Each structure stands twice: as structure tokens, then as C-alpha cells.
Amino acid sequence: MRDDPRADLKIALGSVYHPPDEPYRRLLIMRRWPRGVRKDAVDDWERQLGPSDELLDAYKGGAVDWTGFASRYRAEMTERSELVEWVARQASRAGVTLLCGSHPEERCHRSLLAELMQERAAAWLE
Prior knowledge:
The structure is a single chain. The chain has 126 residues and is an alpha/beta fold. It has one domain. The protein has 4 helices and 4 strands. It has helices spanning 53-60, 66-78, 81-93, 109-123; strands spanning 11-15, 25-28, 44-45, 96-100. The model has no long low-confidence stretch (mean pLDDT 90).
């Protein structure tokens, strides 16, 4: 039995406009298709892993700070726990690159999703 399954997850984070150079499956995690991006720029598109339009608008408009956004995004993903676990299992097998339209240095839901995936992997031991 492994000590920490999170160590086996292969997760890269990046912008769909400037993806990292990783050999992993490229997974777009936005509700809407980003402008100017070709369909072959990603391998899969999971809209349901993006924040809801209401949450994203509230965050971008300043009505919700990062802490509030993170909390609400986690709550939204609780409703999609099977999908989060599926992506985590993909990361444990072949690796995934989580992509969205934000620049790499910006706070983004992709880092929150990576944390949730690691939590799911830790639960596999329980």
C-alpha cells in the first residue's frame, strides 16, 4: 500500500493560450470555449469543472474575494465529486494538464481543482 497517493498524481496547470510543455492529457476546465483557441488545442473539455457563471462574474466584479471564491468553488465541486474523482484517477494514470483562460500567475480555479483532486486521492487510502 502506498504512503501517499497524492505523490502519484501527475498534474500540470496552465493557460490554454500558453500551455505548459507536459506530455499529459490537456483538459480544458472552463464553462465557455475561450476565444481564438482551436478545438485541437485540448484533448478534452469538461465544462462542469469550471466555476458557475454567477460565481465567476461575482469574483471578476469584486463582489467576492479569493477566499469566498475558493469556498464557493469547492462547494460547487462537491456536487460534482464523481467527475473530480474521475479526473484525479486520470492524473494518477497518465497525467492531466488543467487548462483555462487565465494567465499562469493569476489566481485561478485550476489550482483549487488540483487541491481537490489530491484530497480525493488521499481518500482512496481510507
